[in-house]
Design goal:
This protein has 29 helices and 19 strands. By secondary structure, it is α/β, with parallel strands linked by helices. Strands 5-4-6-7-8-9-10-3-18-16-15-14-11-12-13 form a 15-stranded mixed sheet, sandwiched between helices. It has a two-stranded parallel sheet with strand order 1-2. A hairpin with a 2-residue loop joins strand 9 and strand 10.
Amino acid sequence: AIAHLDFAAPRIPVVSNLTGEPVEQFTAGYWVRHVREAVRFADGMRWLAAHGVTRCVEVGPTAVLSGSAQDALADGLCVATQRKDRDETEALLDALGRLHTAGVNVDWPAMFAEWGGTTVDLPTYPFQRDRYWLTPSEPAPAAGDDDSGFWSAVESADRDGLVAELGLAADDAAALDGLLPSLSAWRRRRRSQTVVEGWRYRVGWAPMAEPAPAVLSGRWLVLSDTRADDVVSALSSAGAEVACVPSSAGADVVRAAAVEDVRGVVWVGREPWPLVAAVQEVTAAGVTAPVWAVTRGAVAVGRSESVTDVAASTVWGVGRVAALELPQSWGGLVDVPAVLGERDGRRFAAVLAGGGEDQMAVRPSGVFVRRLRASAPVGSVAPVSMSGTVLITGGTGALGSRVARWVVGRGASRVVLVSRRGEQAPGAGDLVAELTVMGAEASVVACDVADRNAVRDVVAGIEDLAGVVHAAGVSGMESLLDVTEDSFGAVVSGKVSGALHLDEATADHDLDVFLVFSSIAGVWGSGGQAAYAAGNAALDALVESRRAAGKPGTAVAWGPWADGGMAGEAGAADYLARRGLAAMDPELAMQALALAVDAGDVTTTVADVDWSRFVPTFAAQRPAPLFGELVVAEETVADRGLTARLAGLSEAERRRELLTLVRAQTAKALGYAGAGQVEAGTAFRDLGIDSVTAVEVKTRINAATGLHLGSSLVFDYPTPQILADHLLDTLGLAGAGDAPAAVAQPLTGDDIVIVGMACRYPGGVESPEDLWRLVAGGA
């Protein structure tokens, strides 16, 4: 069919979907292969990313490839010029605007010539205004274009108001009687779906640039009770002096192994408690070097992979909490192949030395970093109908009761409600009666889902089992350094064992639904909840492994609900809301649950988050790259050069520097525009600081200075000026004299002179050895 065509080199550079690399010459054979062989779009995008491409424009009738392209260009911008659900002109102008703000040179005069419009010069003075008016939720309509009355009448099913808005005659108004209820319901449903879709997020993986070979120095401890020879080899090959210690050796053995300054600790394993114990031992031994946890098969970075070790996924839940509770001594999480080859070993050593990222996966195709992303709008989906019997664990609790009503509304003929107390659970009888009135048979079964045999017996007694919902769980609050093995195991078992037993017991059943209730604690961590985070991370991994095996499965990682759970406790909802995490309305949360099932989600996160408020607090003591695609968080980690910089100033200059720091961090905690709005002599109480924001100010100042000051800081030192003076004393710089005059030193022919070193390197430069590592590595 193409033999009569002429073929030549492309005049415009083309990256091929056949090879994933640029095409130098087109041939007939090339196009035959193009039809028959695999599409290598992702490889092509990775080639572009590796060669500096940061922006892509998709030209076509709708957005097809932009999402996949964005996965490859994690820090770039991919824009589609058209979308099937938007006006053509609006979509194109939106794309041009996004490209313009990303630095692309847009030919605006050509656009104005096509559509009209004029330009207005901006004033020459700088903008220095603060706006205090509340921003309306919707822009005011243009004159003659206000349809709010129409939609208000529709939403409230106001027939007479709608007749007046439409100007209908009496004879025509009767036509509304049958239509208005459906239209009103559609409008309310559409509004709710908009809110719900704004709560939906998903975890993805982005490729990072190939790391440069690293040079490790000093002593590194490897703690493991499993095979770790390839990890040891990778560290040794990078220059580290490696000492191997059994994971459960105890603090004394760790202390003995740390005979000299330890530069890093690498734990290798698959069970969560040994990691917790190792962190406790390392801390008790006085080792302050960062601890890295290494797993195999705990995460899947793409559709071609699957989680091969659900147990190892619990380690990742523990690590996310360790990053919050031990920000200065936690390194991060790295998942590696079953066998760490030479090339992968070099990558592994490089990510330990590189800094900046703390959740990574090393693969033969490169290094990937974990990111949380907003889910794309789902649009219209057909509701999944249910038949037969649905088993619900935690079925008599607040969440389980709502789920029971929902599955009956979806067509389930019978519901089996499982709880530890069975029929003795509060409200169990009323719930059964309510479900019976709804037209379903309901029963309550006493069963501890952590008991494998008990779960097997319950499932065996249900002949027409069509769905499983695992909403049971146990939570607990204990710090990582204080939790015991028994209490840790009880919480993990309460979440994970039931899900594993249900997965096993239903292996031969043709289920329509296998739904588990997870938590945001497993997605990004929650202080004091290492065990709970571990259990929920395992639930997500279990569902991923089920879907990879062709079985049904959906995991929803919930944020706080407005009734029941932590957010239901006195003051908890307000505390969370002030940090950007609002408790969700239960009715809307159930709509989000239905959407996750209907859309065929594997794992999804549902939470009402104001990222501009949440991330700065979450990342107050260490960066949180997980949220990098949602919001650009301010860097508030300790300025390790602060003391040295202050030492080079006069005492008056030191006081001014520290006062500026205090005012700036206070302004951020209060949501002010800048430090100028915080007067030096005004009491913190008069600025609006309460017990909650006092903790945030303390956290920010600790992070910025590297100090460990108490939560009563702003009450003990009641004004910014007094607090700044206290910081000067605490840093040992009060009365230390002015900076000494520089003394010129003669140079010899062997000296290396570094001129103008004004950079911040991600790996950190704290010693001559660090500097030499960077120079030797080509940085």
